[in-house]
Design a protein that fits this description.
Layout lengths: L4 E7 L2 E6 L5 E5 L4 E5 L6 E6 L4 E6 L5 E5 L4 E6 L2 E7 L8 E6 L5 E5 L4 H8 L14 E6 L5 E8 L2 E8 L12 E7 L4 E7 L5 E9 L10 E4 L2 E4 L6 E6 L3 E7 L4 E7 L2 E6 L5 H4 L5 E7 L3
Antiparallel strand pairs: 1-24, 2-3, 3-4, 4-5, 6-7, 7-8, 8-9, 10-11, 11-12, 12-13, 14-15, 15-16, 16-17, 18-19, 19-20, 20-21, 22-23, 23-24
Length: 297
């Protein structure tokens, strides 16, 4: 039995959940081409913007303007009034679909990408291929987009860089060396979480393995920071796991179907679920859900 309650259903495939400046949950629905804002108290859901494309990661500039990853044309868009205008073009970095994004308090955006045709590979050889010991997919670069839209490579050779979270750096709590933060990145098809120290200019240093999670059957997709740990959507299981550095599982929350993205909004864990991630399954149907778990439980 699931630990969560379903607040919203009827999605194609929800991704990129984030707490917005107004306290609502913002999320993308890939195949509807929509960005939504959902009141977690009332359940009222609003389409903030829709476009002829496939949205994913979300974030905000310091002045409150919304940034949206446009997956298929490898861009980051900025919402100006009712229009999504070009904020940054990462097509020189993204080698396949652009995907999740984290925007820090300075307005710097870290943007991942698939690196290769994951769903094409799954169609051809099945998801079990990803679990084989010798499987070594192409790496992908993580893009760093500055607030003015300039683009650079933040890190290279990540295996499907996906969800990200900023956590306090225990070795630099006051920011004397860098920003005082570490960036944790989910490498989905490497079944691990990788961390970096964040410099004051947003550059990433001191790459290391933060947690190996393959033994738990976790292909980390979306993640959300929570104190000294992260909540991880496993992409292969109807559950969410809280993981701390070194790979310790501290909590497991059961969902009604496979979880692909998570967010922590106040005292609630938000889980975006679907029966599958393959477009052949979820694009024609509306089986995606927004599920809620009260962290005070």
């Amino acid at each position: 039995m699931a630990d969560t309650r379903v607040l919203r259903d009827g999605l194609h495939f929800g991704e990129g959940p984030r707490r917005g400046p107004d306290g609502r949950l913002y999320y993308s629905d890939f195949y509807a081409g929509e960005v939504h804002a959902l009141d977690l108290t009332t359940g009222e859901d609003e389409v903030v913007v829709a476009f002829d494309g496939q949205p994913s990661g979300l974030g905000w500039l310091p002045d409150g303007r919304l940034l949206v990853v446009s997956m298929l044309d490898h861009t980051v868009r900025r919402l100006e009034g009712d229009d999504l205008v070009l904020h940054a073009d990462i097509s020189d970095i993204a080698t396949y679909h652009a995907n999740d994004m984290l925007v820090d308090g300075e307005g710097r955006a870290y943007v991942g990408n698939f690196g290769f045709d994951l769903h094409g590979l799954i169609t051809e050889v099945g998801v079990a291929k990803l679990l084989e010991p010798g499987f070594d997919p192409p790496g992908a670069a993580l893009a760093l987009v500055q607030p003015d839209g300039s683009v650079s490579v933040a890190a290279e050779d990540l295996k499907f860089p996906n969800g990200m979270a900023l956590l306090p750096d225990p070795d630099d709590p006051d920011g004397h060396i860098g920003s005082g933060n570490i960036l944790v990145v989910a490498e989905t098809v490497a079944f691990k979480l990788t961390s970096f120290s964040v410099d004051r200019n947003g550059s990433l240093q001191n790459r290391r393995v933060w947690a190996e999670v393959k033994e738990f059957g976790i292909a980390p997709d979306g993640i959300a920071g929570d104190g000294d740990g992260v909540w991880v959507a496993p992409a292969l299981q109807p559950a969410v796991f809280r993981v701390t550095e070194g790979g310790k599982i501290t909590h497991r929350v059961e969902t009604t179907q496979t979880c692909f993205a998570v967010a922590v909004v106040d005292d609630k864990l938000v889980c975006l679920t679907a029966p599958d991630s393959h477009p052949d399954v979820v694009k024609p149907e509306r089986l995606g859900k927004v599920e809620i778990y009260d962290l005070g439980n």
